[in-house]
């Protein structure tokens, strides 16, 4: 049946705005409330022995939102780095930011670099925050790197295979996501980890992100544990394999 605990969980943290609107509060209050869920999910991931957690915080398309909301999101990102990085470090969490950070304010870029440097050698949990990230951007920057390597003469275009592409995607040193969660009720990928999630198990919940707590996360993990992943094989083949390799 395969592993019951995913090695890598990827989450689209959606529904902050609707959580706030339901309470007749500004959307920004929902974003602030969502930070608590980030902490809960990170801590539970450490407890569960999950190796990697990738959280979608800001997409390459989210720049289309009102300026005030974007400003608040940048401010919140900065504040959370300030308040939480030390604790993450103490818990053995390695923090990395995926995405094109060059569009962020300088102070935020500096903070991100400091947090990444501080936590670079931690091994308990690989935490990736996808910010100004898009799956198409990721595949495009991999294509750019492939082309540059060909031009530099260190890669033969005929030798480009899936592994060559995969190796140039962001977060290539981590296992691909096993479990892909989206909160907030929508059933779409919204340009998150397109290549990497080719064989991820999808899990959708109606809970808005600020309501997604440890218990909700454990339900998602239990659902994952009940699935049979087949990777193109038949169910019988999988059962036989499980018998051969001791489960
Ligand atoms: C997700 O919540 C957070 C970001 C995209 C930054 P939303 O802000 O998309 O909340 P809804 O989907 O409008 O409720
Ligand atoms: C996806 O949520 C991006 C993040 C959660 C950061 P959106 O709310 O931006 O996605 P759409 O626009 O509903 O597809
Ligand atoms: Mg949304």
UniProtKB/TrEMBL annotation:
The keyword Cell wall biogenesis/degradation applies. It catalyses: 8 isopentenyl diphosphate + (2E,6E)-farnesyl diphosphate = di-trans,octa-cis-undecaprenyl diphosphate + 8 diphosphate. InterPro entries: UPP_synth-like, UPP_synth-like_CS, UPP_synth-like_sf. Its EC number is 2.5.1.31. Its cofactor is Mg(2+). Substrate binds at residues 15-19, 27, 31, 59-61, 63, 65, 182, 188-190. The active site is at 14, 62 (proton acceptor). Keywords: Cell shape, Cell wall biogenesis/degradation, Magnesium, Metal-binding, Peptidoglycan synthesis, Transferase. It is an enzyme of class 2 (transferase). GO terms for molecular function: transferase activity. The keyword Metal-binding applies. It holds the Pfam family Prenyltransf. Mg(2+) binds at residues 14, 201. Transmembrane segments: none annotated. Binds 2 magnesium ions per subunit. It comes from the Bacteria. Homodimer. Catalyzes the sequential condensation of isopentenyl diphosphate (IPP) with (2E,6E)-farnesyl diphosphate (E,E-FPP) to yield (2Z,6Z,10Z,14Z,18Z,22Z,26Z,30Z,34E,38E)-undecaprenyl diphosphate (di-trans,octa-cis-UPP). UPP is the precursor of glycosyl carrier lipid in the biosynthesis of bacterial cell wall polysaccharide components such as peptidoglycan and lipopolysaccharide. Belongs to the UPP synthase family. This is Ditrans,polycis-undecaprenyl-diphosphate synthase ((2E,6E)-farnesyl-diphosphate specific). It comes from Thioalkalicoccus limnaeus.
